[in-house]
Amino acid sequence: MLKQTEGSHAVAEAVALCRPEVICAYPISPQTHIVEGIGEMVKSGELTDCEFLNVESEFAAMSVAIGSSAAGARTYTATASQGLLFMVEAVFNASGLGLPIVMTVANRAIGAPINIWNDHSDSLSQRDCGWIQLFAETNQEALDLHIQAFKLAEEVSLPVMVCMDGFILTHAYERVDMPTQAQVDAYLPPYEPRQVLDPAEPVSMGAMVGPEAFMEVRYLAHAKQMHALELIPQLGDEFKKVFGRDSGGLIRSYSIDDAETVVVAMGSILGTIKDVVDEMRADGEKIGVLGITSFRPFPITAIREALKNAKRVVVLEKSLAVGRGGILASDVRKALRKQPVDVFTVIAGLGGRAITKKSLHALFLKLALETEESLTFLDLDWGVVNRQLERERQTRRSGPAAENMLRDIGTVASKIA
Amino acid sequence: MFEVRIHGRGGQGVVTAAEMLSIAAFEEGRHAQAFPSFGSERTGAPVVAFCRIADQEIRLREPIMYPDALIIQDPTLLFQVDVFSGLKKDGYILINTKSTFDELGLSDYVRDWPADRLCTLAATDLGLKHVGRPMPNVPLLAGFAALSGITKLESVCKAIGAKFSGKVAQGNIAGATEAFELVRARIESARKEAAHA
Question: In the structure, what pLDDT confidence band is assigned to residue A344 with cuts at 50, 70 and 90?
Fold first, then answer.
């Protein structure tokens, strides 16, 4: 049924349709509305056979999720930013143990400086934690990916993060097509664990594994993610059969067939980029977009195939590997290592900096003329940066950089964007 | 695409207003996208929310920098925030105040504006009268429907039904109806004056 609703609420409803048995919740913006929504459904009796636990921290949330998943319950939680970092030890344990937990990450920057706004630093800090990571472009896709995530997680016995842009998606009201319970039931069978804590058939989970088998256990986790590369497109196809729409998959391309320049990105910024691509196409520019839905496993072969005719690749990412440059760009570079193509890295939208059509348009035109691979910080205020650098040259005790720069900028309450 | 920016203060239902506008547009079969600009949200602090309305899927995710219309829920913001930033020429302006544009010191800014695109409405009083709380958002939304014609009053009432229930919904519908009629009458008289001028 079509409805106009908040992204968080749409995800809460979709998760409820997946018949979760344990939800553990600890509030952190911009994720909170999701677990609040599910909590309301449990309390009202709309969602039955589901234990809703308020825990005392994110570390507890993931610990509870591990316990309940090991006990055979379909388990869900959600977090963001510092919350994800606080649960990291348990995050690695969940994947190491092969427990099919589904978790929404409402993407938000990581402090310091503290910042509640959107970027991808939180999920991407966990790129090697062993979880599958899927990125949603719209609220419809966020909703759909959660339904697929449970099936995928349980099929490969690995946990899945569904990543959606904090505020930009979680707090946006837009149209979604909410599936029926019958559709979700037809797609997602009841959870049949590969391993379960059962007093009748005791097993040990999480015991120490020494050098004799640790490599093999880790390799198996990698092999499972490689298997997920095959499974993700299949689950997308099955999804289309039941729900009648394209959602998920490894990658999604737009106007790339004859494109000389292809922009690669993840998440909700793909929509704005598509609008820019349409404008530039109208001006005769051969430009297209490649969206990456599956960041982990990273679909190297699919990306290589999609970009085989590109002359120039622009990776636009909302994350920064300090001291290195792009995170997504490095992975894309690896996929293209044998192709004679320049890969430009653009860091954009950190800490909620608005990414505008105007800036993207100018950026793509500028990069089309460059011949050396480069690293660009979109809309960086060089005046503010240079003043601070000068201050640090002049004075040993130059003070906290963030405070100095805020003072240089002055009031922001009067500005719109 | 029609783009609306709503300015107000924390506690005035600014974000809810944008969401309700999107619901009203959805009720008429259109695509709509509403989202807040999250700053340090505190009661009384300046808040901005946005709503886009279109006949096809809305992919754009940037803040609305060049709005077709402004709803200003708190006139004290005029002296604090650059509320008119990027407003398109002849765009709609609806301000919650008992004063006129002249009294607010805006006569120079709107000198060449069509008179039927400008309106003030004592929306806080309407909120107090009908809901018992100084909430200007719903009367402004209904007033905006009359001013811009972007949605019908009926759709605003459906959006009220989606957000509120019982007596609060009834009060809001009464407030919305009064606001809609007030603004419609003002716009009609402005058009008549313009025709005579």
Answer: very high
CATH class of A251-377: alpha beta
Contacts of A173 in chain B (CB under 8 A): 18-19, 22-23, 32-35
Which part of chain A has CATH 3.40.50.970?
2-243
Interface check B54 vs A, CB under 8 A:
no
For residue B182, give how far its alpha carbon lies from the nearest alpha carbon of chain A (Å).
29
> Which of the four pLDDT bands, split at 50, 70 and 90, describes residue A415?
low
Domains of chain B: 2-196 (3.40.920.10)
Closest CA to A105 of A155, A148, A145, A73: A145
- Structure tokens belonging to residue A281: 């196409």
What does the pLDDT look like over A65-117, one tens digit per residue?
999 999 999 999 999 999 999 999 999 999 999 999 999 999 999 999 999 99
How much is the pLDDT for B79?
Answer: 86
pLDDT tens digits along A264-302? 999 999 999 999 999 999 999 999 999 999 999 999 999
CB contact under 8 A, A174 and B86: no
Sign of CA dihedral A178, A180, A186, A192: positive
Kindly list the residues from chain B whose CB atom is less than 8 angstroms away from the CB atom of residue A6: 19
Where residue B39 falls among pLDDT bands split at 50, 70, 90? low
User: What is the pLDDT, as a whole number, of residue A416?
Assistant: 63
> Are A174 and B33 inside 8 Å of each other by CB?
yes
What three-state secondary structure class fits A78?
strand
Top-level class of domain A2-243? alpha beta
Distance of CA B36 to the CA centre of its chain: 14
State the sign of the Cα–Cα–Cα–Cα dihedral A197, A92, A60, A21.
negative
Residue A336, amino acid: L
pTM over 0.95: yes
To the nearest whole Å, the CA of B115 is away from the closest chain A CA by 26
ipTM of predicted assembly, 2 dp? 0.96
Give the span between the Cα atoms of B91 and B117, in whole angstroms.
7
Smallest Cβ–Cβ distance between A168 and the set B35, B39, B58 belongs to B35
Q: Show Cβ contacts of residue A213 under 8 Å, excluding neighbours closer than 6 positions.
A: none
A-chain residues near B60 (CB < 8 A): 271-272, 275, 357
User: CA neighbours within 13 Å on the CB side: how many for A302?
Assistant: 20
- The residue among B16, B61, B82 with the most chain A CBs within 10 A of its CB, best to mutate, is B61
The pLDDT value recorded for residue A414 is: 57
Angle at A65 between CA A61 and CA A66, to 5 degrees: 120
Count CA within 13 A, CB hemisphere, residue A323: 0
- B163 interface with A at CB cutoff 8 Å: no
- In whole angstroms, what is the distance from residue A65 CA to residue A71 CA? 10
The minimum CA-CA distance between B103 and chain A, rounded to whole Å, is 22
Interface contact B61-A269, CB threshold 8 A: yes
Which residues in A lie closer than 8 A to residue B36 (C-beta atoms)? 167, 171
Integer Cα distance of A173 and A168 in angstroms:
10
Domain(s) labelled CATH 3.40.50.920 in chain A stretch across 251-377
